[in-house]
Specification:
By secondary structure, this protein is of the alpha+beta class. The protein is about 15% helix and about 55% strand. Strands 1-2-3-4 form a 4-stranded antiparallel β-sheet. The two termini are about 20 Å apart.
């Protein structure tokens, strides 16, 4: 989770796509112009089974001087020993 947050913060689309589950991976990543990521707090994580896990987090960012919060419950799946972001349920800002 932290590595994907860092990839968003640094604009590393290649890493984001490489760590996205092949079944849900988008064709490309569109970064919001002027978005500055300013913090990540992981609130909970749990292993569902050997190959599935969930992470609840809040990521903070700024656009045009206004602060926002992205609250998400993410799901991850392990394939061939590597964890991939599967999808997430996003709460309103």
């Amino acid at each position: 989770m932290r590595s994907r947050y860092t990839a968003y913060a640094t604009g590393n689309a290649e890493y984001l796509l490489a760590t996205w589950h092949p079944g849900t991976r988008p064709a490309h990543i569109d970064f919001e112009p002027g978005c500055k990521w300013i913090g990540l707090t992981v609130h909970a994580h749990r292993r569902v089974d050997d190959d599935h896990a969930e992470v609840a987090f809040v990521a903070r960012y700024r656009i045009g001087g206004r602060a926002h919060r992205l609250t998400e419950d993410s799901r991850f799946e392990r394939i061939d020993g590597r964890w991939y972001y599967l999808d997430g349920r996003v709460a309103a800002d």
